[in-house]
Amino acid sequence: MENLGYYNGNIGAIEDINIPMLDRGVYFGDGIYEVVITVNHKIFALNDHIERLYKSAEMLKIIIPYTKEELKDILYDLVKKVDADEQLVYFQVTRGTAQRSHKYNKDIKGNLYITITPFNDIGNYKKRVKLITVPDTRAFHCNIKTLNLLPNVMASQKASECGCEEAIFHRGNIVTEASYSNVYIIKNGVLKTHPTNRLILAGITRKNILNICNSNNMNIEEIPFTIKDMMEADEVMLSSTTKFIVAAKEINGVPVGGRAPAVIKLLQYEYMNKILNETMD
């Protein structure tokens, strides 16, 4: 298959899969999700993504109708059905199907939704990108990977219309994260990133970057930093599952970074090696 859609056991081309109107994900965004990539039909960092999915489900009291191992087996079975070696795998669990009501039956089982498409962006992480800043108007549950992404969508669209790759959120003067990425700065050899509290998502790529820094004796500070700190940093960096690690060259039309390229290259090299080592036959 060129692509694949899955909904509660129904499998077919994405355009042929139907979702019930009464799925709570349709009218409330009442669900959680994860995105992973495959190389050589092997899913990178699947255990970390599964753990985060179940943690999000626990915080929202969503019942995932499979064990962790059963869900992994479903994903790997579906990955094998898509022709491309490199794939983008999106999976979400909504609270379930019920008549529209803000209140929900705490015993209903979740609905599993999966899409798999070819992934062609692996080599794009080496290109420096343009960014903008936008006020962070989201709620205080950014640590849960829910389907409620309208502020992220609006910010990402604004960045695109400005000819930029990403939009960096800030609350007052404090930088939090970006519309689909974690944000870092590098200053005097120290990597700084916002702590994992309710204001940001604990990214899986972020976790790997911090491990790489520790392995290379690079100092890390998980502390809030300001827009001014970011604009004056030696490097500004983003990370996500699909974009890997990218460095900024411009924010709001002002040149930034470019003063510690060796650090950026080291992190990109080490992270790509990790992906390849864990997905090789």
Automatic annotation (TrEMBL):
GO BP terms, alphabetized: amino acid biosynthetic process; carboxylic acid biosynthetic process
Cited Pfam families: Aminotran_4 (PF01063)
GO molecular function, one term: catalytic activity
InterPro entries given in the database record: Aminotrans_IV (IPR001544), Aminotrans_IV_CS (IPR018300), Aminotransferase-like (IPR036038), BCAT-like_C (IPR043132), BCAT-like_N (IPR043131), Class-IV_PLP-Dep_Aminotrnsfr (IPR050571)
Coiled coil listed as a keyword: no
Keywords associated with the record: Pyridoxal phosphate
Domain of life from the UniProt record: Bacteria
GO annotation, cellular component aspect: cytosol
Cofactor: pyridoxal 5'-phosphate
Family statement: Belongs to the class-IV pyridoxal-phosphate-dependent aminotransferase family.
Protein name: Putative D-amino-acid transaminase
